[in-house]
Specification:
globular; about 25% strand; alpha+beta; Alpha-Beta Plaits; Ribosomal Protein S5, domain 2; four-stranded antiparallel beta sheet; eight-stranded mixed beta sheet
Length: about 400
């Protein structure tokens, strides 16, 4: 399994990158984590429930105000070895590369409420790109946290998460609130049960040290801007309209079956996944809090099957990973497994015995390599802390 570089070491590395790039020390160093969703997939934009946690993979931003009368920021991505110029007065250029557009759109959203000084920034990250672990949300939240610290304009946590969601919409991805809320609000040692309609959340402790979360990256990349995400969202809206409800959160399984003959079969399957997934998620949170790992695992497997068959956002690589985990079973330390994230590649999440995690990862990755011919990567993670300021001094 891959070991995570510690947040302290990642912060030190990012600060060193800043010094090497801009020839001075940063005055601000902040971090925001990626996330993994235990259950509740494609429910957030349907006003449903999700059960994510922050992971110990972070995006770190080191920054300082720039000198002179510039109205732009110099932003360097160590991950991509690319530097871009970003206007701090709003109105980002569509010609920016995707990673810089995420930064620029957060700047745009923040600039609507406060003047932003010219600044220099270096960005580094251990959140896998394209793995369905919210690398974009981690970047957005880290940039917003940096801007808060640099300008002294503190946002309420929910307001910061919504600002970052608006930035992602500006980029062109019509995401729900889960990713940004997770990166901002999650607490160490806890999962977060989030009601995406009320935007209320409560923390569910993962208190049993003998159980851990195993993330396996298929190393198949996906791009949500490819249109599949927006297509699923539109299908859900079509289903809600046909059922006469504001969103699929308001629909029941009974209502869906009563109206089944009036629905296109594809729209019916999309709605069936969402309605059942909304029901599964609070059950999983309650089972987790009760230490009923078998029930949590069963709900995770049911979620994956639904995502594969009804929502059709899985792929052969994810199915092989989940099948390999499920075949190991509880006797070998696996309670349950499912794809996580938007789909079309990315990662799986499994609930496993801590003392069997390394052996489980080796067995699953071996089976995957044998069947797919690609090397998967795995890491175990405790529930991690949300966005934080690592260091701040006046310039």
């Amino acid at each position: 399994m891959d070991d995570a570089i510690s947040l302290a070491n990642l912060a030190a590395r990012t600060a060193a990158t800043f010094r090497n790039r801009f020839y001075r020390d940063p005055t601000v160093v902040v971090a925001a984590p990626g996330r993994v969703n235990i259950i509740g997939e494609h429910t957030d934009y349907n006003d449903g429930f999700v059960l994510p946690m922050a992971i110990n993979r972070y995006t770190v931003v080191a920054a300082d105000r720039a000198t002179g009368d510039s109205h732009s920021a110099r932003v360097f991505s160590a991950t991509l070895d690319d530097q871009q110029q970003i206007c701090v007065d709003g109105g980002q250029q569509a010609s920016l590369p995707t990673w810089a557009r995420y930064v620029g759109c957060v700047v745009d959203q923040f600039a609507a409420g406060a003047a932003i000084p010219a600044f220099d920034a270096a960005i580094d990250s251990t959140v896998p790109l394209g793995g369905g672990l919210s690398s974009s949300a981690a970047l957005e939240v880290a940039v917003a946290t940096m801007l808060e610290t640099l300008t002294g304009r503190q946002l309420e946590p929910v307001a910061k998460a919504l600002l970052c969601q608006a930035a992602e919409h500006q980029v062109g991805v019509p995401c729900g609130i889960m990713d940004q809320f997770s990166s901002v609000l999650c607490q160490a040692g806890h999962l977060m049960l989030l009601d995406c309609r009320s935007q209320q959340s409560r923390m569910a402790p993962l208190a049993d040290a003998s159980v851990t979360v195993l993330v396996i990256n298929s190393n198949v990349k996906h791009e949500l801007t490819g249109g599949e995400y927006a297509e699923r969202r539109a299908q859900c809206e079509q289903a809600a309209k046909a059922l006469g409800v504001a969103s699929l959160r308001d629909a029941s399984g009974d209502l869906l079956e009563q109206r089944r003959e009036q629905l296109d079969p594809l729209i019916y399957r999309r709605a069936r996944h969402v309605i059942r997934e909304i029901e599964r998620t609070p059950k999983a949170a309650a089972a987790l809090e009760a230490g009923n790992w078998q029930e949590v695992g069963q709900l995770m497997v049911a979620s994956h099957n639904s995502l594969r068959d009804d929502y059709e956002v899985s792929c052969v690589e994810l199915d092989v990973l989940v099948a390999a985990a499920t075949a190991l079973g509880e006797a070998n330390g696996v309670f349950g497994s499912r794809m996580t994230g938007g789909g079309f590649g990315g990662c799986t999440v499994s609930l496993v015995r801590t003392d069997r995690a390394a052996a489980v990862a080796e067995a699953i990755c071996g089976q995957y390599r044998q069947q797919i011919g690609v090397q998967a990567t795995a890491f175990a993670t405790p529930p991690a802390q949300g966005a934080c300021v690592i260091s701040h001094r006046n310039s």
